[in-house]
Known about the structure:
- The complex is a heterotrimer of chains A (about 425), B (about 425) and C (about 170).
- Chain A has about 425 residues and is α/β, with parallel strands linked by helices.
- In chain A, about 35% of the residues lie in helices and about 20% in strands.
- Chain A contains 15 helices and 18 strands.
- Chain C has about 170 residues and is of the alpha/beta class.
- Chain C contains eight helices and seven strands.
- The longest helix of chain C has 9 residues, at about 90-100.
- Chains in contact: A-B, B-C.
Amino acid sequence: xxxxxxxxxxxxxxxxxxxxxxxxxxxxxxxxxxxxxxxxxxxxxxxxxxxxxxxxxxxxxxxxxxxxxxxxxxxxxxxxxxxxxxxxxxxxxxxxxxxxxxxxxxxxxxxxxxxxxxxxxxxxxxxxxxxxxxxxxxxxxxxxxxxxxxxxxxxxxxxxxxxxxxxxxxxxxxxxxxxxxxxxxxxxxxxxxxxxxxxxxxxxxxxxxxxxxxxxxxxxxxxxxxxxxxxxxxxxxxxxxxxxxxxxxxxxxxxxxxxxxxxxxxxxxxxxxxxxxxxxxxxxxxxxxxxxxxxxxxxxxxxxxxxxxxxxxxxxxxxxxxxxxxxxxxxxxxxxxxxxxxxxxxxxxxxxxxxxxxxxxxxxxxxxxxxxxxxxxxxxxxxxxxxxxxxxxxxxxxxxxxxxxxxxxxxxxxxxxx
Amino acid sequence: xxxxxxxxxxxxxxxxxxxxxxxxxxxxxxxxxxxxxxxxxxxxxxxxxxxxxxxxxxxxxxxxxxxxxxxxxxxxxxxxxxxxxxxxxxxxxxxxxxxxxxxxxxxxxxxxxxxxxxxxxxxxxxxxxxxxxxxxxxxxxxxxxxxxxxxxxxxxxxxxxxxxxxxxxxxxxxxxxxxxxxxxxxxxxxxxxxxxxxxxxxxxxxxxxxxxxxxxxxxxxxxxxxxxxxxxxxxxxxxxxxxxxxxxxxxxxxxxxxxxxxxxxxxxxxxxxxxxxxxxxxxxxxxxxxxxxxxxxxxxxxxxxxxxxxxxxxxxxxxxxxxxxxxxxxxxxxxxxxxxxxxxxxxxxxxxxxxxxxxxxxxxxxxxxxxxxxxxxxxxxxxxxxxxxxxxxxxxxxxxxxxxxxxxxxxxxxxxxxx
Amino acid sequence: xxxxxxxxxxxxxxxxxxxxxxxxxxxxxxxxxxxxxxxxxxxxxxxxxxxxxxxxxxxxxxxxxxxxxxxxxxxxxxxxxxxxxxxxxxxxxxxxxxxxxxxxxxxxxxxxxxxxxxxxxxxxxxxxxxxxxxxxxxxxxxxxxxxxxxxxxxxxxxxxxxxxxx
Lengths: 418, 419, 166
């Protein structure tokens, strides 16, 4: 029977020949990722709710501190200490201050065809390499941690056929926001968003990361880009094999098929307070900003930093704007140092942050105040996400954010290039 | 009768022919510094006092550093009030994310040799590194200065500290000032001025002197002065002939003289939880650490980052130990990037943060919790300064801190040559 | 001569400004919001126990550390009548005078009061402290400081200078 990419990955993880949407299967999890947002809660449950608990396979566990790094108060410091002590005692891989969890997972671990669970909603990012990544809560995580398995209901797949190429000045962020605007915040609820077609293959791994990362903002269980040679090359450069490159069978059943012509995508922004409230950048009007942010698992990679640096070179951040840039990982940071990008940022007045979730998490760095307006490459613009409950967040591409930081109001990067 | 450095500065400032310790005089203030934590209070008091304008817009510097980046919703309120104050009263010098106030004041030339400068921060003593009489005041006092341009001071006694000879390898000016604070105790210089001289301080960079002036307040000092020399002139962009008057007379009167031979200094640490609880590093060697912090107005300068990078290059921070490096200013960060030090640090596993006060002021950038222990290069190890009151804070030099980050325990700095 | 008495709370040497009010509470809007955290690193319960008119007695170098004026302001807002210590740090001293908080230096009282279990003392301003049948002489404040205190603090002195009447 024909299957989609997601169905094939679940079948592999479940050790069965085929799966169908709606079935419930027990799967072996290839990796379990947990960050400092909730790991301390999982550890509390592990220690207090279970009798003689044991970790099924410590090699599958990856603990990453990225949300509040370095700690900004004794409470987060205590959560970190619990996580660090537990990792040390149980010999679990621990990353502290090395970058955003999803970036590290993709850089270090993820292979095509793997089934990965993470205690973070944006775990869906791993589809950039053709893996099935999905977010879970602490209780599910705890179960998987002690059993090495989890259960999954096979979702239907919604296919996005992409053709053509994004025009210059248009970014994958604009594409995925456009899609979310079209389908709505629950338009892919509990579905797999599968991106395929020559348009998808034209996208770099970093571009694919952007698409899959925001899949959850359309309600999807995961997002997967049909893996190809670019995945093989990425994994080879990272020093690992690429895994199993599953593609959907020709007669696979999709719940829905959308067609997108990348050449027709325009720069857009998501307005406060919903990711699916998407409008063309040209219609945003006169919106003054107080803060700008480039970073996060969505847009903190070298490609994004290059776009920012190109716009900032020889220019200054607007005096009324606080502009924070956080590389998504130390590898990105080192690359940016080598390319002279950090130099440009410092010269132009940007606040260069250590690699971490930063403003996207909104509780540690660059917290915004009452009535303030932020434009950001973060993953979400929910009410109060970046600080005060009466603040506003617009989401856009690194180009739009950087141009706006220079102008002091939301503008298209073309305005800065002149 | 001869005069000390501080007496000379006060005489020059007031036009008085002679002053003696104990005199109460009104001085004309050359520059003031206000930072983000206190600007809301300064503004309130200034307006409550009934002032309508600043005595001199060009002499006022507002610097955001304690709350950069913001880590709480209320932090932004300080920026809003500061921004308004700048616009309303025409403050000429304003830095929103350029680094720590005490770094920027001498670096940007706001505090120059012979000046009298007050700031709303106790470590305002730092500018004594260029022969500037600078001291910390509260926000009410600052509000009065903003309106009048004047402040009363009691002419302080001076403690003369003479250090001669060459420092042993791996000993930094931080080790010297820690030892001196240990000898003076936390109140040994209360309402007095420290005046440093001798071949050891002559050989020091302005940055190294800055570390010593910065920490003088930890012995209670009102100021800590170095007479300007060629290095000072280059740093502060002044002519030697214009500052030649700024030296102590041979027959000046000191309340106390302390003499040190540079070869007797050893890498030292202040142990929890007083700055005057000084021990040689080798006495506490092997003490396990959870975190190491290199930065602050005491030791976040290029030479400190260089020492750190030289020690860490090609090595890794110990597992489960966090090394946080916070450059003191944007320009220092940039210089450290250009020199390749930041690459060395990040490659070794350090967390390099945005320039600012960072962990030193206890508001972000590496706060700790019960049972944790940190070795830091900043100026205070008071109870609760970096998190809960059950955090142990050791203070040491960047060399000691960097060596300790590699081993994960307090370590005497070894191989590295410091110059 | 002005005279008052009050219950005593005894603190140690080097009571620094981070103990009087930790940095993390400095961004709170008002001194009244902050005052419940006074002395919290050392004695978190103390701020709630201090009653109007109580007196703080401490060892050397009280108020050392930062220039934060919230330190004396908070003590003032807790309605502490005065602080008696072996010595005071310089900035704290100025800030206290500017806020009209009375500080008294005395070398031996602290050594004689072993703990603060119900101790009570009497202060005769500019003259002496009486405790447990013994008198402890105190110095009068310099004139220029008396002027600021008599004016009601530095804000009041400047208001007078600027011709503002309440």
